[in-house]
Amino acid sequence: MTREFDVIVVGELNVDLIFNQVNGFPEVGKEILSDHMTLTLGSSSAICASNLSSLGLKVAFIGKIGNDIFGQFVIDKLNRSGVDTSMLMIDENLKTGATVALSYGEDRAMITHQGAMSHLGLDDIDEGQLLRGKHLHFSSYFFQPGFKNNVHRLFEMAKNVGITTSLDVQWDPAETWELNLNQVLPFVDVFIPNEVELKKLTGLPNVNRAIESIKNISRFVVVKCGSSGSVMYYDNKEVRLNPFVNKEVVDTIGAGDSFNAGFISKFIKGATPEECQEFGNLIGAISTTQAGGTGAFKNLEGIMEIARNRFNYQE
Ligand SMILES: Nc1ncnc2c1ncn2[C@@H]1O[C@H](COP(=O)(O)OP(=O)(O)OP(=O)(O)O)[C@@H](O)[C@H]1O
Ligand SMILES: [Mg+2]
Q1: Ligand 2 centre and the CA of 302: distance in Å?
Q2: Residue 240 forms beta bridges with which residues?
Q3: Where are the bilayer-spanning segments (predicted)?
């Protein structure tokens, strides 16, 4: 058996069509103009996969798209960043998911058609696929109804084939926050929510109490705290780490997915938990130096140059 991939990412795939400099707000029966438009690879899971690959890891993606031009775009973008797409499922009857975002200053109004992403489920994945990797990363639970109430079985499958695992649930657009952490976290090595998500998931108003309520279920609880850095809990100890300060943030899109990529890239190489956390913070901060979630991640050399020049990071 060859573990040909360092990381297998299971998750949602979509394109983002972003309109900038929009002249007003859309209204039924009227038309407005936008001075700029960008079509990019969307989805948290894809940003993480792409950045893991740019960090030099061998990455494969398992996801579902339609047989359409957006699906081709997704495949092309993933391939260009070195992500293996041979396990992607193309469904003739479904459309590739798409988000249209209207950008107003720092905020956005968005509309999403989930399409094929919401049809990926446990039955699409088998042990043979997971056996090809060393680590499973799963993201965006609430955007993938195919895994509702059974995502723990995916993680259990990963554990049965002897690979390590990480989970970032991301936001719940319906704000139900229905996920049984006690069921899934025993199979998760690294649980990586952000602080708001963790509070919502546990129903506790305070991050420390939220961590307290789930500590020791997964091996590592790693909580992302935006411009305050991150907090990690493992082996009965808590490690708070300040961020790498970026005084000129371009945007914070994908900072969390980039943090995941940084943490996981060190984790699968057997680095210490503190090294993983520091590298997560670094890669999260690097993401904020360019537009979008993948803009700063061309290749390892370029990434480490930003690390040295902007953040004084020494390997
Ligand atoms: N303004 C910033 N300056 C420096 N570092 C940052 C900044 N914002 C985020 N980071 C780094 O990136 C990490 C992840 O960011 P954040 O906490 O925003 O994740 P998230 O909420 O999951 O993001 P996402 O919207 O991508 O899902 C932080 O823990 C921090 O280390
Ligand atoms: Mg996030």
Answers
A1: 24
A2: 231
A3: none
